[in-house]
Specification:
Layout: H1 2-29, H2 34-51, H3 59-83, H4 91-112, H5 118-122, H6 124-145, H7 149-154, H8 156-175, H9 191-198, H10 204-225, H11 230-236, H12 240-256, H13 267-276
């Protein structure tokens, strides 16, 4: 048992020092970036822990801190991609690299804490954020590609696959928390809050996720319908029309019902629904 813990500890220690080197290189580019500064602060704390011998470590807390470092560093890298408008030559490789980095915390949890659920180790918010960031990255990439009509004509299958992967990540983000069932002894004195929680909407990010899914499903339907291979896509992939319709109906119901007057616009969602339905 002691050998197992030490082996787990060594693997995490190695990755922490590798990330520290990467963070230092990125900070050389932009010393005053808040996210890199936060990552550097956490890494210093983690390195100090290991220099002192790493006794009595809480593996769950170490993995949570490690995950936050990943989120901060990749956020800086994502912003670079967005600022560069996803260069055609380098963006595909960089996106796959970022997706791999954002998947690594789940892989490490499975490897280092066998038998435990990822959510119980990392916590709900960090797990939601990992799914959200991967899905939002692919949304932003697809949003940019959507402007490149000539590129899509030549790379339609790649575009649809990016959408499919992005929608899956965003759907998983929405599924991390269980919806609040109002007949389970839950007492909520605010009926508006009760309504949105029963739909699985726990934050502004959940609402934005719904809109992203709706838009991506619309793009997929638009290009699938024009594709000679559309039947194959529908058999092997997601039912974009059904998913988009269901999610956007929930979005509109929430924004025009319990959240009316909170600044959420439904015009685009309704326009997409008129095409999907």
């Amino acid at each position: 048992m002691a050998d197992d813990y030490r082996r787990q500890d060594f693997e995490l220690e190695r990755r922490i020092f590798e990330l520290d080197n990467k963070c230092a290189c990125l900070r050389a580019e932009k010393q005053d970036d808040d996210y890199l500064q936060n990552a550097s602060t956490i890494l210093e704390k983690l390195k100090s822990f290991y220099r002192q011998g790493g006794e009595s470590f809480n593996l769950s807390k170490l993995l949570q801190d490690y995950t936050q470092v990943i989120l901060d560093i990749t956020f800086y890298e994502e912003n670079q991609l967005v600022d560069q408008e996803f260069p055609e030559d380098s963006a595909p490789f960089k996106i796959q690299q970022l997706l791999q980095d954002l998947t690594e915390p789940e892989v490490l949890v499975a490897r280092l804490t066998p038998g435990q659920e990822v959510q119980s180790v990392l916590g709900t918010e960090l797990l939601e954020c990992l799914y959200w960031r991967r899905g939002a990255l692919l949304y932003m990439y697809c949003h940019t590609l959507h402007q490149r009509k000539q590129w899509i004509k030549k790379n339609k299958d790649t575009f649809i696959k990016c959408i499919q992967e992005g929608v899956r990540y965003l759907m998983r983000m929405l599924q991390v928390r269980n919806t609040v069932k109002l007949n389970d002894g839950v007492v909520l004195h605010d009926s508006a809050t009760a309504s949105i929680l029963s739909e699985g909407i726990f934050s502004d990010t959940h609402l934005l996720t719904m809109m992203y899914i709706g838009e991506m499903c619309f793009w997929a339907v638009k290009y699938e319908d024009c594709s000679a291979d559309s039947t194959e896509h529908k058999e092997d992939g997601l039912q974009f029309r059904d998913i988009g319709t269901q999610i956007l109906n929930k979005y509109v119901h929430a924004c025009e019902g319990p959240l009316q007057g909170q600044g959420w616009n439904t015009e685009n969602a309704k326009e997409i629904l008129s095409i999907l339905q």
